[in-house]
Amino acid sequence: MNRIRLLPDQVANQIAAGEVVERPASVVKELVENALDAQAGQIHVEIQAGGRSLIRVTDDGLGMSRDDALLSLERHATSKIRAATDLASIRTLGFRGEALPSIASVSRMSLTTRERDAEAPEGTQITIHGGKILEVRAAGCAPGTSVEVRQLFFNLPARRKFLRSEETERSHIQHYVTLAAAAYPEVGFTFTQEGRMIWQLPAVKSERQAGGGLGALRERLRALSGGETKWVAVDHSAQLEPPANAPDEFTDEAAGRFWVWGFIGEPGVSRATREEQFVFVNRRPVENRGLNFALLEGYHTTLMKGRYPVCCLFLEIDPGAVDVNIHPAKREVKFHQEHAVRREVTQAVREALLNFHARPRPQVPSSGPQTTPVKPVPAVPDLPAHPPSRVESKPATREFEAIAPPPQTRQALPAEPRPQTARTNPTNQTPSISAAASEKATATTAPAEILPPRAVPEAVPLLNVPLRMVGVIRKLYVVLESDRGLVLLDQHAAHERVLFEQMLHRLEQGQAPSQRLLLPETVELSPRDAQFLREQLATLNRLGVGLSEFGERTFLLDALPPFVKASDARRFVLDLADELKATGQTVNTLRLGEHTIAKTVCRHAVKANDTLSGRELENLVNDLKQCQMPYTCPHGRPTLIEMSYRELERKFGRVQ
Hints:
The protein is α+β, with helices and mostly antiparallel strands. Helices cover 29% and strands 22% of the residues. An 8-stranded mixed beta sheet has the order 5-4-3-6-2-1-7-8. The longest helix has 21 residues, at 338-358. The relative contact order is 0.10. The model is unreliable at 361-448 (pLDDT under 50).
């Protein structure tokens, strides 16, 4: 008797549904992707009971004819690819043709559709229960498609039993709709649950060329998450070099174009998890460990351990240079040039953070309290090779003169002008919209109104506004006043950042020193780590690490930079390999000994209870302004905290 049998189509569809439809959010994802691929201008998502009892996705896209609607319910029927070669350059969100038949096989589904340009006034409605077509009839409907899914997993009790609570499933659905709405600001989204509208987002005019989508994206982010998060614009383009053995299609100049744009959180804006990291590749939300590492590397020394940055970043890359067909749910992607992509993402984030502080101060009238014009304090000409006035020259117990002069002679610390950066974004503005201000969306034949993004003046970095010294709290926290509110400066953290960058600057100016070990040590590594380090030997030797091959998988460590202390040679080499993999090949001496440098400057920086004079505090602030990353110490702790006048008025009950 034959033991191998061909499974019926219904069973095969249910097996496929196990890969495609993990939970109600998977159904919403597939249906919304179909709507976006159909050039929808308005998408309405409605759920009940966390998607268990009802999921309805309605769009005003291209729609389908009667024959296409029936054919779409067959496995691997799609309009998005024609041949196997199309899989190498996928430009749509969906492409497998598995979503609708898989969903229909595990639910009671109704599909109503009408072509946008059809002459006939009627559409088509198909009713399917458990993969069986029960009825096909003509129906009156607006152009577009509406898919209604009821009683998900009604014929698979085991799968239904493993669903989470309604609140959990609802949060997963809302998370995906949020991702889709952020990726497509030019599409209007409405989200309804239990008959109550959660938010309604009007379409925003968006131009994706040359950073033109930043204004629309900022407005959509404000509608989704409110205006509390402070964003820094990212706009970075590069030309990726093709690999040495790349096929002919990857050697074309257009195929190597790479563009990173979007927003990241300002220095000090972070979360305890990665939940607010939105990364899109060709506007597809993805999960990629390499991109997560690249993002953290871009924030290097500006985040505390255990904290993660907030971002909404878009990577535009040639579709042929990325493989999206490696995951059943299309959540993960693989790049042909993984290291080059990570390097450019890190560079884009780093440039944005550096440009944030270097942004020139616009000459606008101050809206805060007016101060008497006085002669400014002369700026510090260069970064000194030693700490500010106080350090190592005065004992900590000595009493200094008053921190602030009398009110009639009180001086303001000048905000030094910054050079114009090479990359400017005229659309990096802060529009404001209301997420629920529009009337209820309905599917109509008229195109949706697209609102232009509204502009407001660009935010000015804190150290680029005039600061006036008020006093010191507990001989640690310096109280400053700006035209925006109250500013607190941690003198220890600020001095740490100043010394850290000064030592780093001196270290990078000359050749990295190297100190021979008294007893060289041999280190045996795994084949993968050995191959990686073998490719990095020249770089490591230039940085002062004496590492050489001593066998097939064995290396000899005989020299280290003076600032690196390694009690365990094998652990040091393994940590070094992990560090190099995380940072890419563009490493420098600071990465090898930055922990030692950070500990050194922590010991030499001014401490709490170290009294500083007014002039010394002014020098400290001026030195901090000269730093590349002045808003955090080397450990990622903030150096400055700002409290606006509105926050103060709210705390005192003057405003609601």
